[in-house]
């Protein structure tokens, strides 16, 4: 596996609500050049930990960094054992630390009862690096709606925990790349409150964002953060992951349940960073709302190798900018 050290080029910026997003150079290139799709990360005791979709023969690969710049792929599997209800490949993991110091991982696996669809599962560990032990009960498995993927945890400032995920309705079909070419299905992003264990649902799930005509066949990969001023910012990707229109977008809301308003322009698109970005997406935002990881194809419109990139971000009101 190839490693590359990058230096983020930070530019001071203070964008008002009226100004368009200003594109800036992100870096000298990807921080992980091997396949590391749909990355998510957290920081613990001065070390950054990243997790990705199945790659390199591992269900959930891991990487570490002392500075968010120089990353090492560990070669160990955070989820060596899959749940009884699912099989690989496993997609889009996200790890949260609970208030008792333990960790919960959210991930998607292929449903053994319908291998055309995925369900969201959970796994727990006493340490951030695992190994994580999966639950034999899926967290979200609406097979009649197309299944569920791309779960991410979120802890609000009052301590309430939520999980946001995608209803994978494009798996129901509709033609075109990624399915749903006829745009007959919504692929809503869904918010579920959970208990202190990060797993037990509290009340019913709520749709917080729906696909629109400009989003192509789908929206997916939600990641939620609360800005310092109290604005909730929901990052997501739209269009198909293996096409040039895949992006990192965002929506904002005054309340965790919405209503969320999509930004007028995507945050990251193909061709950004001096033409280096190809189908950027699958982003995950850090708890402080100042750091972002995402993947970008190593070759235009070829998702065989999706490399991990990092970026600094600034949230100002309802505007997010690369910083």
TrEMBL record:
Enumerate the PANTHER family for this protein.
BETA-XYLOSIDASE, ENDO-ARABINASE
Q: Which InterPro entries match?
A: Glyco_hydro_43, Glyco_hydro_beta-prop_sf, Glycosyl_Hydrlase_43
What name appears for this protein in its UniProt entry? Glycoside hydrolase family 43 protein
Species assigned in the record: Ramalina farinacea
Asked whether the UniProt record includes tRNA processing among its keywords, one would answer no
Q: What are the top taxonomic ranks of the organism?
A: Eukaryota, Fungi, Dikarya, Ascomycota, Pezizomycotina
Which Gene3D superfamilies does this entry report, sorted A to Z?
Answer: Glycosyl hydrolase domain, family 43 (2.115.10.20)
Q: What is the residue range of the signal peptide feature?
A: 1-18
GO MF entry, a single one: hydrolase activity, hydrolyzing O-glycosyl compounds
A UniProt-annotated Pfam family: Glyco_hydro_43
Q: Which residues form the active site?
A: 38 (proton acceptor), 220 (proton donor)
The UniProt keyword set, sorted, is: Glycosidase, Hydrolase, Signal
Q: Which family does it belong to?
A: Belongs to the glycosyl hydrolase 43 family.
Superkingdom field: Eukaryota
The site annotation (Important for catalytic activity, responsible for pKa modulation of the active site Glu and correct orientation of both the proton donor and substrate) covers: 150
SUPFAM superfamilies named among the record's database cross-references: Arabinanase/levansucrase/invertase
């Amino acid at each position: 596996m190839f490693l590359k050290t990058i230096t983020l080029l930070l530019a001071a910026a203070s964008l008002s609500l009226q100004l368009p997003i200003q594109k800036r150079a992100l870096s000298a290139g990807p921080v992980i050049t091997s396949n590391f799709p749909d990355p998510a990360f957290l920081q613990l005791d001065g070390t950054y930990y990243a997790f990705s979709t199945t790659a390199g023969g591992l269900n959930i690969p891991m990487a570490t960094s002392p500075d968010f710049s120089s990353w090492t792929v560990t070669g160990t599997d955070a989820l060596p054992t899959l749940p009884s209800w699912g099989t690989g490949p496993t997609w889009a993991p996200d790890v949260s630390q609970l208030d008792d110091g333990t960790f919960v991982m959210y991930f998607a696996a292929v449903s053994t009862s319908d291998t055309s669809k995925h369900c969201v599962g959970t796994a727990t560990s006493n340490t951030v690096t695992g190994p994580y032990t999966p639950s034999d009960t899926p967290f979200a498995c609406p097979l009649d709606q197309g299944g569920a993927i791309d779960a991410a945890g979120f802890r609000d400032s009052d301590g309430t925990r939520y999980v946001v995920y995608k209803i994978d309705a494009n798996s129901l079909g509709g033609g075109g790349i990624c399915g749903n070419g006829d745009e007959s299905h919504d692929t809503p992003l869904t918010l579920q409150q959970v208990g202190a264990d990060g797993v037990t649902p509290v009340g019913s799930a709520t749709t917080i964002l729906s696909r629109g005509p400009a989003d192509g066949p789908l929206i997916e990969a939600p990641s939620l953060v609360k800005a310092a001023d109290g604005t909730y910012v929901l990052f997501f990707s739209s269009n198909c992951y293996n096409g040039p229109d895949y992006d990192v977008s965002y929506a904002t809301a005054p309340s965790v349940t919405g209503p969320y308003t999509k930004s007028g322009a995507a945050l990251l698109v193909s061709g950004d960073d001096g033409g280096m970005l190809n189908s950027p997406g699958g982003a995950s935002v850090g708890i402080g709302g100042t750091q972002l990881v995402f993947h970008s194809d190593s070759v235009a419109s070829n998702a065989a190798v999706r490399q991990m990139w990092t970026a600094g971000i600034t949230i100002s009101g309802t505007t997010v900018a690369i910083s």
